[in-house]
Amino acid sequence: MTESTTGPSTPTGATEPLITVDVWTDVVCPWCYIGESRLHDAIAAEGLEGQVHVRAHSFELDPTSPADTVRDNIAHLVAAKGMPEEKVREMEAQIQEMAKELGREYVIGRPMANTRGVHRVLQAIREASGVDAATDYFMDLQRGYFTGASNPFDVETVVARAVQAGLPEDAARAAFAGGTHDAEVEADVREAVQMGARGVPFFLFNDTYTAPGALPLDAFRQALRQIAEETRAEPAQS
Q1: Does 41 reside within a domain?
Q2: Which of 2, 131, 146, 171 has its CA 20 to 30 A from that of 154?
Q3: Which residues form the DSBA-like thioredoxin domain (predicted)?
Q4: Per DSSP, which regions of 43-128 are E strands?
């Protein structure tokens, strides 16, 4: 875990969280799915439920993916990484086993396409309904993607979830189609890169400490414990 001097602003509200965790993520990122699960397991293990505020931020793993083509994720990885299909399936099976150990489903066969539309909708929800609604929207889509329950490349699926998050339907459709919020997506990505991110997941704790990758559960627990102790030791603001 490294220290950062930049980060998002502290959320407003009646009660300040003990710890704020900003996470840069992509909806199709398997390590983001694993990392998010480990983070929440660590929060529970440290007895910090209700004291940690998680905020999702946009980061595209492959912005060059075609927006108008949806294909199988195995074929995509074979082409993108230049790996034999057997190796890709072996890698997917290993991640599936990790998810199983965390009590989560992980479907190996999944659709794959450009994720910019999902990120634009995230930004539109954040603007209209706040960061918590945007984070819930994104994490729900990501979990649904890896369990086979939802397709984040289907416009009706994304729009329905965005409406549940408080975004008007026409605004959701405009954002998904590319009419709005590209600048906000790019600003999120740029902020992470400036802090040293080269991929996702990428975590920022209390606007101070950064951690790349899906940390092991014990590492998340240690980080949360250390930051909680530091925060509790800070003098109260008058």
Answers
A1: yes
A2: 131
A3: 20-224
A4: 52-58, 71-72, 111-112
- Measured CA to CA, the distance from residue 177 to residue 86 in angstroms comes to 35
The answer to whether 102 and 39 are in contact (CB under 8 A) is: no
CA distances from 96 to 11, 62, 80 (A): 34, 22, 20
**Which CATH number do you get for residue 9?**
3.40.30.10
Distances (CA, A) of 36 to 140, 159, 169: 12, 23, 28
Does 96 map to a domain? no
pTM for the full predicted model: 0.91
Decide if 71 is inside a domain.
Answer: no
Domain that residue 221 falls in:
2-61+117-233
- In terms of Cβ atoms closer than 10 Å to its own Cβ (0-12, 13-18, 19+), residue 107 is middle
Q: Which amino acid is at 55?
A: R
Q: Does some domain include residue 105?
A: no
Please report, as a single letter, which amino acid is at residue 232.
Answer: R
